[in-house]
Design brief:
globular; DNA polymerase, domain 1; about 150 residues; five-stranded mixed sheet
Length: about 150
């Protein structure tokens, strides 16, 4: 079935069944590989994208429910929160294996878009759906605090 989706600021024509997970459209149809497959059941957060500015798990989001919403992937996000998060991630050397990091970053951007000065508890609650096999959670939390400081400056 032919569909048009808005992704990373462009309208793109795709061929996909209506129940195809958005993740596979992003990766296989559009060749945007920054968004990762982790679990396929929305438990790990590796596939997190923003739909109309809100973090969503693309592995369980059928492409048919996206409609006219704007999808943003790690491949093109450039909001002030995104720049601050990416800067903090680099400054604090958050990444270990890196596999989960696109989802972690997209969730952190979502958090800072809603809450400019989150507490440790706010971070732990918001980021709780993102799994990191390397257990870099302390560095992720520190980087979110650093990103908040960058945004405040």
């Amino acid at each position: 079935m032919a569909l048009t989706i808005k992704i990373n600021g462009e309208s793109r024509e795709i061929e996909a069944d209506s129940d195809t997970p958005l993740l596979w459209v992003i990766r296989d149809e559009l060749n945007l590989t920054g968004t990762k497959f982790g679990c396929g059941v929305a438990a790990c957060g590796a596939c997190t994208v923003h739909i109309d500015g809100q973090p969503r798990r693309s592995c369980v989001t059928p492409v048919s429910v996206v409609g006219d919403a704007e999808i943003t992937t790690i491949d093109s996000i450039n909001t002030p929160e995104a720049v601050a998060v990416q800067t903090a991630w680099q400054e604090l050397d958050v990444v270990q294996c890196g596999y989960c990091q696109s989802g972690q970053i997209m969730s952190a951007i979502g958090l800072l878009s809603e809450n400019k000065k989150p507490s440790d508890g706010d971070i732990d609650t918001y980021m709780g759906g993102n799994a990191c096999r390397c257990a870099t959670y302390h560095r992720i939390r520190a980087a979110i605090h650093r990103a908040a400081d960058i945004l405040e400056a």
